[in-house]
Amino acid sequence: MLSSERKMLVIEYINKNGTVTIQELASEFSVSEMTIRRDLEDLDKQNIIKRIYGGAMKIEEPFRIKLPFEERKDQFLEEKRRIGRVAASLVMDRDTILLDSGTTCLETAKHLGDKNNLFAITNSIPNAIELSTNKNCDVFMMGGFIKESNQLNLVGSHAIDILDQFSVDKLFLGAMGIHEKRGLVYYEVEETLIRKKMIEIAKKVYVVIDSSKFGRDGLFSIGSFSSINTIITDDKISEEQIDFVTSKGIKLIIVSENDTESIS
User: Fold this and answer.
1) Cβ atoms 139, 132 nearer than 8 A
2) Residue 70, burial from CB neighbour count under 10 angstroms (0-12, 13-18, 19+)
3) How far apart are CA 103 and CA 109, in angstroms?
4) 8 A C-beta contact, residue 204 and residue 167
5) Sheet holding 168-173, edge to edge
6) Do 237 and 229 form a contact (C-beta atoms < 8 A)?
7) DSSP secondary structure code for residue 143 in this structure
8) Which CATH number fits domain 69-263: 3.20.20.140, 3.30.565.10, 3.40.50.720, 3.40.50.1360?
9) Phi, psi angle pair for 178, to nearest 5°
10) Is pTM beyond 0.85 here?
11) Model confidence over 250-262: pLDDT tens digits?
């Protein structure tokens, strides 16, 4: 069993059982206690589980529950459409791209119909359907378990491991928030682990996010500011937020209501 697959199963086991011992985990996954200790230390550093004496325990999520996909995709819809259009304009013919399952990434997928010889990878069934309407685009659907019947995105160790086979030119990435200390954040462990791997294999990372996400915190950190090349957002972002993003050396593209763009 690969390390990433085992860690995913360890997380699932802890979340199901609440509190577990090192001996229990070592027996469950047929590995040494030292291996389990290393796994738990790594997961604790990522704030995915809490390391305790002799074992680990589940972290109770202190943040608000994520809204269902159908509700989220209609929030700030006009802003997401404009952001998606601009994000799609950054894709060139013959690019290899990766899109996550976020609602703004879906709007990006809807604007890629004119690209030629495109190779697109996604873990989102709605994204794959949109991309497949372009006959000049090859679409690769990552394997895994369906997370939500209404979102139809695939997660799990299989989805993460398959990404090790690829190197992509551009990743278009959503998040539940951008926190000034913790970077990109999310509320669910499975989505976080997928996005971490996506960042790892991408040459350039484009964060597509509406301005309401700035300043929000989440349970898990997806990636630091150093992992981001460009953020694309709407013109409701504050001057303070603009200054903060640009101070991190990140290119910022702001899309206004009349579809004009400004770049910082």
Assistant:
1) yes
2) exposed
3) 10
4) no
5) 137-141, 118-122, 96-99, 168-173, 202-208, 230-234, 251-255, 261-263
6) no
7) P
8) 3.40.50.1360
9) -125, 110
10) no
11) 999 999 887 666 7
